[in-house]
Amino acid sequence: EVQLVESGGGLVQPGGSLRLSCAASGFTFTGYWMAWVRQAPGKGLEWVANIKQDGSDKYYLASVKGRFAISRDNAENSLYLQMNTLRAEDTAVYYCAASGAGLLYWGRGTLVTVSS
Amino acid sequence: DIVMTQSPDSLAVSLGERATINCKSSQSVLSRSNNKNYLAWYQHKPGQPPKLLIYWASTRESGVPDRFSGSGSGTDFTLTISTLKAEDVAVYYCQQFYSIPNTFGQGTKLEIK
Fold first, then answer.
1. CA torsion B98→B104→B105→B106, rounded to 10°?
2. Are B107 and A44 within 8 A, CB to CB?
3. Which residues from A are below 8 Å from B when comparing CB atoms?
4. Beta-carbon separation of A101 and B105 below 8 A
5. Angle at A109 between CA B42 and CA A44, to 5 degrees
6. pLDDT tens digit string along A30-83?
7. Which residues contact residue A51 at a Cβ distance below 8 angstroms, ignoring those fewer than 6 apart?
């Protein structure tokens, strides 16, 4: 059974940092690009970042570039998102997803709330 | 950035009837190298992660009922649910994966009339 399980969300003050993790199982992790997608309260889906199978290529949404860093550990079948200098507008449920022709597998998400 | 615009924003359809959702991209998402449209459709129900329905604009993902179909090319795309069932109530999104950022449409909320 395919599973993607996110963790690491929580309440953080503006300017703070969080590191999200995503543990993958049930599929060949190294065969897929991986992505982070978020959904702010009451809003639609927003692609945040993705990373190539071997970690050599990474791409970011302009509003998070320089603040967020995506990485992966293929030995641990894990995906990460280091989020620094967080802003109120980063408040959202963050999903990790495996990307083929479209986002095929999704986790259930982890909530990040940026508030003082 | 490629802007994805869905219409309508919300839609109410009777059970057993057809539902049609449109998606328009600000630039073509058709690759000349492989003649594929880099366009996907997702279904998102409350409390659940999004589910991939259609990729390459018209290829149904494994396990997706055949009442769901996708069509279109270039900049104009359509998701059709041929015979609406109660479990199809959800928000539907299109997404282009032709260029970075891989933008989503704003979503279309589908309800039962």
1. -170
2. yes
3. 35, 37, 44-47, 50, 59-62, 95, 99-104, 106-109
4. no
5. 45
6. 999 999 999 999 999 999 999 999 999 999 999 999 999 999 999 999 999 999
7. A33, A34, A35, A57, A58, A59, A70, A71, A72, A79
